[in-house]
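Q: Hi! First time doing this. I have a protein sequence and I read that you can turn it into a structure. Is that right? Here it is:
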Amino acid sequence: MEQSHPVTGENIRRLLHEKRRSQADLARTLGVAQATISQKLSGARPLKATELTQIADFLDVTPGELFTTHPQATATR
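A: Yes, that's right. Below is the predicted 3D structure, encoded as structure tokens:
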């Protein structure tokens, strides 16, 4: 089974929280169900390149920001 990189899902969740947006907001933007977003962020379903671009636009970040490791995010675990 193809999986998304775990850092990507963690970063998207972190950015959603920081920008006070929900998975439901993101799902509406991408035209998919909220459950689909949840599966994609957990790595159960792959994120497509086009979706990553849309997500970056939605969160007002560069696509690279979705792949960058953030030490503060992992240090709090």
